[in-house]
Amino acid sequence: MPRSGPAHSVYLDGLKNAHGMENQALSIMKPQLKRIEHYPDVAAQLERHIHETEGQIARLEHILGELGESHSKLKDAALSFTGSMAALTHSAATDEILKNSFANFAFENFEIAAYTSLMTAAEETGAAEANALLRQSLEEERRMARWIEENLPAITRAYIGRAEAGARADV
Questions:
Q1: Helices in the chain by DSSP H: which ranges?
Q2: CA distance 21 to 170
Q3: What's the angle, vertex CA 114, arms to CA 1 and CA 103, rounded to 5?
Q4: What is the mean pLDDT of residues 34-58?
Q5: 70 by DSSP, 3-state: which?
Q6: Between 26 and 169, where is the model more confident?
């Protein structure tokens, strides 16, 4: 694999960005999971995806290690902070479960785009062997996005039903 040039730089930056992105995902999902009270299916799916995300981080660290590189602690910290702030902002909303679902769906699609681009950069650098690991992460992101999309009507109905009954509906 070429160790220099634009393709390698894009690939290396993409790996470090993906690592930061996955840390940001954790900083968004973990506070959501702690707050969910009335949506057990959402909580179960978030818990599953948190474990997948931890695996994605480990895979990215493995790929970076194979290249003699490490993740960017600054990017990780900055993106984790912005993720925490997004989770905090939604916690003040009366329709928190809906806002979190919308944001999670958007973020999953962002991750899908990032992994698709990263896999292309890997191919361009001749690092196709890393693509099996990256593809696993991509498929996990696609599954999560699909789950949110398929379950958003049920989440919305449950939210409306709880609100109509005068019950706490936000989380």
A1: 6-35, 40-66, 73-91, 96-125, 131-164
A2: 26
A3: 160
A4: 97
A5: coil
A6: 26
Chain-centroid distance of CA 59 in Å reads 14
Mean pLDDT for the chain?
90
Q: Residue 74 and residue 33: Cα distance in Å, rounded?
A: 25
CB 95 within 8 A of CB 128: no
Burial class (CB in 10 A: 0-12, 13-18, 19+), 110: middle
For residue 1, the model assigns a pLDDT of: 45
C-alpha to C-alpha distance for 57 and 23, rounded to whole angstroms = 8
CB-based burial label for 28 (10 Å; 0-12, 13-18, 19+): buried
Query: What is the C-alpha separation between 155 and 160, in angstroms, rounded?
Result: 9
Per the CB < 8 A criterion, the answer to whether 118 and 18 are in contact is: yes
Cα–Cα dist 13/19, whole Å:
10
Closest by alpha carbon to 151, among 91, 90, 99, 101? Answer: 101
For 80-102, the pLDDT digits (tens) are 556 555 655 655 568 999 999 99
The per-residue pLDDT for range 129-156, each reduced to its tens digit, is: 899 999 999 999 999 999 999 999 999 9
Question: What's the whole-model pTM score?
Answer: 0.88
78 burial class (0-12, 13-18, 19+ CB within 10 angstroms)?
middle
